[in-house]
Write a structure and sequence with these properties.
- This protein has 4 domains: about 130 residues, no CATH class; about 100 residues, no CATH class; about 45 residues, no CATH class; about 60 residues, no CATH class.
- The chain has a 5-stranded mixed beta sheet. Strands 8-10-9 form a 3-stranded antiparallel beta sheet. The chain has a 3-stranded antiparallel beta sheet with strand order 13-14-15, with helices on both faces.
- With about 375 residues, it is α+β, with helices and mostly antiparallel strands.
- The longest helix has 20 residues.
- α2 packs parallel to α3, α2 crosses α10 and α5 crosses α9.
- It is about 35% helix and about 20% strand.
- It is built from 12 helices and 15 strands.
- β13 and β14 form a beta hairpin.
Length: about 375
């Protein structure tokens, strides 16, 4: 370590601090982290966390991802449960239509900030970004591709359509003695609009990434991802992919287009991931933009998808109570209150569940939640 005279504490040589969920910084780094005087706030409910939700006592919470602490020091947090299949959880949550409005609350990427070097994160970010994009594209296809008027240039035979392009007509036809041809520009109502070309180009990037990304090829959902990609490419067969960087940046979507705006934004993110060059796919696996995933919220939506499919019409999700609280699930036919916890188990004894019991007991006494659950008999305690 070297010493920074401004703070008179050793400055670690590490450019990136690596933590597991709920893990503290190494003892030898604590003095330096404290000297930065950063405003660590801990978890942020349903919003982007500051510094990956690191708590005031310098511990990681349940967010994974990468974030800058200073202009030259970053922190990376990876899952504590090494065998957790977050890719499957992510896929299930994405394909589950009722969760679509909740999804942006537990996942975000900051492409406007400098990238962070970490070999531990590409296996997390790249699959999630591609899965999000492919699922969103296929959801879009259920409504059909948007069409619009585009300018088409064509060297027509013995006819004129639209406007004659005099300079191009001269260079292509007149100087070559082709008096039977006329170079014209005209409007055509087509799916080959800038938005669709942008999406098509991002699909080709996704195809390239999947073909060379070992972590995705080995995963059990590889077949499902390949199917989504093949289906999307087939639907975009008549759309060109010759969109340049300036066109990518100019594409703007009206909020009225809903799902189209989501897909266009994801396409831009995927192209930015590789600096708009398909040749970069696979060449910078140690660099990721700052991003975050709220694993607790992701787990809640994953459980919601399972309960929703197992008990159709009986599950209510995120039911609000007093003081901005919300219970995860109500099962209406049983008048059952349920809460999901992102924990492998209570490791040593039932003593670890005391806070969770207090929390769900509070829900069972919350009049807002009880009213949503339905009328109960006098002094009846709902099942939890």
């Amino acid at each position: 370590m070297e010493t920074d005279n401004r703070i008179s504490v050793p400055v670690p040589k590490d450019r990136v601090f690596h933590l597991l969920e709920h893990e503290s910084f190494k003892p030898e780094h604590l003095a330096y982290i404290a000297s930065l005087e950063l405003n660590f706030q801990g978890p942020c409910y349903e919003s982007e966390p500051k510094y990956l939700g690191i708590t005031p006592d310098f511990k990681a919470s349940y967010y994974i991802g990468a974030a800058w602490l200073t202009f030259d020091k970053a922190v990376v947090v990876t899952p504590k449960m090494v065998n957790i299949d977050f890719v499957r959880m992510f896929m299930s949550a994405l394909r589950f239509a009722p969760s679509s409005s909740y999804f942006p609350k537990f996942y975000g990427i900051s492409f406007s900030k400098p990238k962070i070097e970490s070999e531990k994160l590409d296996n997390i970010l790249t699959p999630l970004l591609i899965i999000h994009f492919l699922v969103s594209v296929n959801r879009l296809l259920e409504k059909g591709l948007k069409k619009g008027y585009v300018i088409r240039e064509e060297n027509l035979h013995t006819k004129i359509k639209g406007k004659i392009l005099l300079s191009k007509h001269y260079s292509k036809n007149l100087v070559n003695g082709r008096s039977d041809r006329v170079m014209c520009a005209y409007e055509e109502y087509s799916t080959n609009i800038p938005e669709n070309r942008l999406i098509k180009r991002a699909l080709l990037f996704a195809q390239r990434t999947i073909s060379i990304f070992p972590a995705m090829q080995k995963h059990q959902i590889y077949t499902e991802i390949s199917y989504l990609l093949s289906k999307a490419l087939s639907a975009f067969e008549g759309v060109q992919a010759d969109v340049d960087i300036s066109s990518v940046r100019k594409v703007r979507m009206n909020k009225l287009f809903g799902e189209y705006g989501v897909v266009v934004n994801l396409a831009k993110q995927l192209l930015k991931r590789y600096d708009y060059s398909i040749d970069n796919v696979g060449n910078e696996k140690n660099w990721v933009p700052p991003f975050w995933i709220d694993m607790a919220r992701l787990y809640e939506v994953y459980v919601y998808s399972l309960l929703y499919n197992a008990y159709p019409g009986q599950i209510k999700f995120q039911v609000g109570g007093y003081y901005g609280t919300a219970v995860d699930f109500l099962k209406m036919d049983e008048r059952l209150i349920m809460d999901a916890k992102y924990k492998p188990r209570y490791e040593y004894s039932d003593a670890g569940c005391l806070d969770d019991i207090r929390e769900i007991s509070g829900y069972a006494r919350d009049e807002y939640i009880l009213n949503e659950l339905g009328t109960l008999e006098h002094d009846e305690v709902p099942k939890c």
